[in-house]
Specification:
It contains five helices and six strands. It has about 150 residues and is of the alpha+beta class.
């Protein structure tokens, strides 16, 4: 007799470091992002970083272990700044409006500007984030985000 295991995908489940608990619907996206020449990243529904292109790792200051550790996007060590002359760190309510996070909350295409500090330099990006779906589930299983640098590198 074959025993069947009932698996119910939970939106807040965290993938394991070895990727075994990675939502299978994200696997092809992970491959595409990793191979991309564009600055892009893939987030799981719980905001964990699943894949980062080489260009995005460079501009965000991530090491190669980011895809193994899979930290949450807002806890990955990026210093997000406001657009004032003082470049103050964003508060929680402002962090929630960043396109990669907001697209998972709204389940819609989101676009925003994002200013970060990397190695003492402030960088601004035009960020576009799209939800990724896996029918028949209604909620997004993740988001795909592209970052276009604005201004000099």
């Amino acid at each position: 007799m074959t025993q069947l295991e009932l698996v119910i995908p939970l939106r807040a489940s965290a993938p394991g470091p070895d990727g075994r608990r990675l939502d299978p619907a994200l696997a092809p996206w992970r491959t595409a992002v990793t191979a991309s020449a564009d600055a892009c990243l893939l987030l799981a529904a719980d905001t964990r970083i699943v894949a980062v292109s080489r260009a995005a790792r460079r501009v965000l200051g991530f090491g190669p272990a980011v895809e193994i550790d899979m930290p949450r996007f807002l806890d990955a060590g990026i210093r997000f700044l406001d657009f004032t002359a003082g470049a103050h760190p964003l508060v929680d309510s402002e962090l929630a409006r960043l396109a990669p996070v907001q697209t998972l909350q709204t389940d819609a295409l989101e676009r925003s500007l994002m200013r970060i500090e990397h190695r003492g330099v402030h960088r601004t990006f035009d960020v576009t984030s799209s939800p990724l779906h896996s029918p028949p589930r209604l909620d997004a299983v993740g988001s795909l985000t592209f970052m276009t640098p604005m201004g000099p590198a």
